[in-house]
TrEMBL record:
Family membership: Belongs to the ABC transporter superfamily.
PANTHER family reported for this sequence: ABC TRANSPORTER, ATP-BINDING PROTEIN
Protein name: ABC transporter ATP-binding protein
Source taxonomy: Bacteria, Pseudomonadati, Bacteroidota, Bacteroidia, Bacteroidales
InterPro entries named among the record's database cross-references: AAA+_ATPase, ABC_transporter-like_ATP-bd, P-loop_NTPase
Example of a GO MF term: ATP hydrolysis activity
The ABC transporter domain, residue ranges: 6-235
Amino acid sequence: METPIVKVENLSHRYNIQWAIRDINFEITRNGVYGLLGSNGAGKSTTMNIMCGVLKPTEGNVYINDISLQDHPIAAKSQIGFLPQQAPLYMDMTVNEYLTHCARMRHIPPKNISEAVRRVMTYCDITHFEKRVIRNLSGGYQQRVGIAQAIVHNPSVVIFDEPTNGLDPNQIIEVRHLIQEIARDKTVILSTHILREVQSICNYIYMIEQGTLVFSGTIEKFYNYIEPNSLIISLISAPPMEELRTIPGVTSVEEIGGTRYRLRFSERQDITTRIAETSVARGWRLNELRLEKSSLDSIFAELSRYKQS
Ligand SMILES: Nc1ncnc2c1ncn2[C@@H]1O[C@H](COP(=O)(O)OP(=O)(O)OP(=O)(O)O)[C@@H](O)[C@H]1O
């Protein structure tokens, strides 16, 4: 059997009396970008801090390439890179000084430090700023330096906590691109509360809500859950609501003002065609029909229900 790169086993954590996460389990066996998605306060940072060895779990354990983080923290941590929500930068150092310092902290042998620093600066495209003081870099470049320190010791697992938080749209695109590059030969786990972030860069999703894992699966499987299950129609000659309920597949009808209705349905397939055809056949004079997008909140609610059933 394949040895998992990351194994998270029965992870629970309690701050004082309140549980922040409860019984989280998952295994990662392949490189790629894994998204830990959840709303604010869901338990993402707690999970990530434990995985990086920054926080000791109340219960459970994490294994990196079969090395127990609890029993062999130094060996396990040598295979992990971490960029916390606030990048741990020394603002008054130059980029090169800072990365050299990080390489030393990561126990890279002195003779290899210069090469390791050069390699990550090239990788993160910051070599031209190596003599700049970090404070004088833009937010996007500071984040690149933060990413560089996370991979300077060439770890097999890299963990990013909300890596695009606070960046402008161009910087977000560049940082996402860099993360995807890193994932070519490493396992990248990132946390985010932005659905679009997960959709654009993750191969696999773990969704955490109120401290429990409510979904884990591929992005394709995830799409099945975020597909809309309601649509808005507007009819010039609307029939009584009971008649709208007789359209095959429609489960409920709600009047939302004027000539507009929200229809919920169980089966997405052909629903729009069925509504259009029924409207023509019965002379309802359809002049608007659009699927409603699921909000992140409704997805969380849906997935929590799915987990409980
Ligand atoms: N140091 C702490 N002391 C007490 N409670 C905490 C502490 N850190 C987090 N919590 C609580 O634990 C729960 C999970 O928090 P956590 O920071 O892990 O969530 P998150 O998903 O990362 O949220 P965010 O996106 O806002 O950072 C929340 O209810 C939070 O208030």
